[in-house]
Design a protein that fits this description.
Number of domains: 1
CATH topology: Rossmann fold
Helix content: 25-40%
Strand order of the largest sheet: 3-2-1-4-5-6
Distance between the termini: 8 Å
Structural class: alpha/beta
CATH architecture: 3-Layer(aba) Sandwich
Number of strands: 6
Shape: globular
């Protein structure tokens, strides 16, 4: 039986794979944990997000676009990672041009129907943290799946996890995918 949670798989794009231009420290491990969660088919709603550079940038986004033009223009780098592509037959990919996934109106509508917003993906210190903080501001209870999140380094990844954990237990819960699956099995 599926729960009423919204799982947001944040920006699992090729550019964040280890060895790529914006490679994160444990992207392969995070992807494996995400696949385990998706294969359990426990969440009532699942959405993938993809970051695309702003088309009409303002302020510091202009410099961002100039600095990262080659990466932003490479479709392969911006595509969802190959090991997650089979899931896109079942779940939508919503595009954003800000760090927070809550800039996407459809995602906000889906979150309104959810019991929890469950977060995983990349980059821990950037898009995942921005999404978590905005979800909290919007009043959505957040579950942060620490083994399904990858950051620039293990140290900064842990810092992002700590920031999210400071708002526990009222606004956030930090757990592993296994702990989440076990909690869902116990609540049935």
């Amino acid at each position: 039986m599926k729960n009423r949670d919204l799982l947001i798989v944040i920006d699992m794009q090729n550019v964040y794979k280890e060895g790529e231009a914006w490679g994160c420290s444990r992207t392969g491990e995070a992807s494996s944990a995400i696949r385990k969660l998706l294969d359990a088919d426990i969440c009532g709603d699942v959405v993938f997000t993809r970051f695309d550079a702003p088309r009409d940038p303002r302020g510091s986004w202009k410099a961002y676009n100039r600095e990262n033009a080659a990466i932003n223009g490479d479709q392969r780098l911006n595509d969802i990672m190959d090991d997650l592509l089979p899931y896109l037959k079942h779940y939508p990919v919503l595009t954003k041009s800000t760090y927070s996934s809550f800039s996407i109106p459809e995602l906000c509508r889906r979150a309104e129907q959810a019991e929890h917003v469950v977060l995983c993906g990349v980059v821990a210190e950037c898009c995942v943290l921005a999404t978590a903080m905005e979800a909290i501001d919007l009043g959505y209870p957040v579950i942060y799946l620490k083994d399904a999140v990858s950051g620039l380094s293990s140290d900064t990844e842990l810092e992002a996890e700590h920031i999210v954990s400071y708002l526990s237990p009222i606004q956030t819960e930090v757990m592993t995918v296994e702990e989440y699956l076990k909690a869902q099995a116990q609540s049935r």
